Amino acid sequence: MEADLSSAHLAPNIRRTALAADIHRLSGRSGWTRVLVGVVCSRTFRCLFTLRACQATTRGRIARMFFHPLFRLCHRMSCARAAIDLPWQTSIAPGLAIMHGWGLVVNGGARIGRNVTLFHGATLGRRDRISRDGTRESGYPIIEDEVWIGPHAVIVGGITVGRGSRIAAGAFVTEDVPAGSVVVGNPAAIARSGCTPDVVHRVP
Questions:
Q1: Any residues with CB less than 8 A from the CB of 163 and at least 6 apart, and which?
Q2: 10 Å Cβ neighbour count for 142?
Q3: Who is most buried in 104, 136, 138, 157, counting CB within 10 A?
């Protein structure tokens, strides 16, 4: 049975932070104690913690000078230990869940919405188009809210995966995906429309 997802389960002092949303996706509840447990016990959450810390410490001269380099080093180490490639500059809305994590690759130019779920081996990558005169045009995927991306799925280029869609394991996606779609195969094809989003511990 799905846990109670009311905002009462989010500690008031961190209710509106991205970190609170991330730990809520992991455990169904929030609070600084759970954040600490997540940092110690979950290698995938540790990567999200250091990413959020890197982004937070870019604001303010003192934080940027003294804390930002330290958190960047911590982020590099945590990603290496988790076998995840997740640049700290990546735009990630609150409530990302990384399941298993091994082999996950996210390009720093990708944009990820709220309550997104990423499984091991998935790739969110850049795609280059090169014209006859040698001009290079690069594109990065946009993942909208409540998207579920299965193991070893590949999503590349300047495309948008619509809200609530599910990308099946091993799918290779290079075109826009309408909201609420189930996508399978290589090359990817829409197998079903109007699906219900698959979000465990949805952040309210």
A1: 113, 144, 145, 146, 147, 179, 180, 197
A2: 20
A3: 104
The pLDDT assigned to 30 comes to 87
Same domain for 157 and 127: yes
CA distance 178 to 143: 11
Q: Say what the pLDDT of residue 60 is.
A: 86
Residue 17: partners with Cβ closer than 8 Å, 6 or more residues away? 94
Helices 43-56, 68-82: axis angle to 10 degrees equals 160
| Residues 93, 73 share a domain | no
pTM of the shown model = 0.88
Q: How far is CA 27 from CA 24, 35, 101, 107, 120, in A?
A: 5, 10, 16, 26, 19
Q: pLDDT tier at 16 (50, 70, 90 boundaries)?
A: low
The answer on pLDDT for 22 being more than 70 is yes
SS3 172: strand
**How many other CB atoms are there within 10 angstroms of residue 76's CB atom?**
14
- pLDDT for 43 equals 96
